Prior knowledge:
Oligomer: single chain
Amino acid sequence: MSVRTIFLASCLSLLSSLAFAAMPELSISIKDHRFEPAELQVPAGQKVKLIVHNLDATPEEFESYELNREKVIPGNSKALVFIGPLAPGEYPFFGEFNQDSAQGRLVAK
């Protein structure tokens, strides 16, 4: 491996780290089979790191057709969901295992 290749790989790694460091981070909880808060505002045009804390003893699945995301979160644990960048608008999400109560939406502005 040449010095030039190593230098380029190091630069790409640094740029990648900086991109993740600047990414907005939001948290949401699942408690009693409901999302809290049920609505989150996110910046339009940026990737967002969403931390989903499942405070219930049972698993839940964070799912959104509009966001093209689904993630099962075991009981009493958390998961990361990377979203975006999003165009301005509203993006509903729900808990697959408790759709009657676990409803929410992201609002990108």
